[in-house]
Amino acid sequence: MGVVMMDPRHWVWAVVWVCACTQANERSPQRPSLTPVERASPSAPAPAAEEQGGVRAKGADIVPVRPTLESTGACLEPIVAAEGGNASRGDSVSAGLKPDRDGTIVAMIVTPSSKPPWMLSLHRGSGGRHLLRVTKTGKDAGVLEHPIDAQTAKLFEELWKALTDRVEPAPGGAVSMDGTGYQFWNRSGAGTVSNPKNGSILERATFAAEWLSRMVETPKPYDVQDLPYVRAEMRDALARVRQKEPCVRPYQG
């Protein structure tokens, strides 16, 4: 290896330069380096930051935060009441579809994403018989009625009462408004859900109610043969409500 000889006249300047660099490094804060595990592992602790609206915010950075809980479709969410109204009375419903507290036993208001809202409601007519009523809005606005047997009416009323007794805020406080929305109402309470999970309690309940609405809109001679299947759907949903299936579960992605 060769040796580079430095002119003695340059030694002083070299010493001064080295000392200046050393002092600058001592003044500059050094960021601790991460270990390989901390750099590569997604489970490494994140810097402290505020979490608002489903994101983790730190300075100017916005990073999505994975939710820890999700709805099971077992419980309704609260309805946000219209200004000056009361959600438990059904004041916060779409397009003026408001159940009549004196004549309506239970009701379901449906707000499709691409069609006008409509309502299915249960009433007690003259002589104590029960009637199902479908109220349409938009270009097909109107009211259709059809008698319903006491057994089906009783199940409808009991299921809606059980569901509106278990109203819980959505995980994280965020209420989904996408897709088809359903508002459940009875004389003692109300709640809402959007796009209930397939196979959930609320999906079974809305499926049965929409089946009943089709019987009102387009009655068929074989409707009486379908009623046992509708009642089976409602019985299954009611039994699961009474077993108190949890409203939320750990997020499954």
Overview of this structure, please?
The chain has helices at 11-27, 36-40, 150-164, 201-217, 223-242, and strands at residues 50-52, 55-58, 61-64, 69-71, 104-111, 118-124, 130-136, 142-148, 181-186, 189-194, 248-250. Strands 8-7-6-5-9-10 form a six-stranded antiparallel beta sheet, covered by helices on one side. Residues 1-6, 10-22, 24-58 and 82-93 have low confidence and may be disordered. It has a domain at 77-248. Helix content is 29%, strand content 23%. It contains five helices and eleven strands. It has 253 residues and is α+β, with helices and mostly antiparallel strands.
Task: Give a brief outline of the structure.
The chain has 253 residues and is of the alpha+beta class. The chain has helices at residues 11-27, 36-40, 150-164, 201-217, 223-242, and strands spanning 50-52, 55-58, 61-64, 69-71, 104-111, 118-124, 130-136, 142-148, 181-186, 189-194, 248-250.
Describe the structure using short key phrases.
253 residues, alpha+beta, 6-stranded antiparallel beta sheet, 11 strands, 29% helix, globular, disordered N terminus
| Number of H/I helices | 5
The whole-angstrom Rg is: 32 Å
Helix/strand class? alpha+beta
Mean pLDDT: 76
Strand-residue proportion: 15-25%
- Strand order of the biggest β-sheet: 8-7-6-5-9-10
Low-confidence stretches: 1-6, 10-22, 24-58, 82-93
What is the total tally of β strands?
A: 11
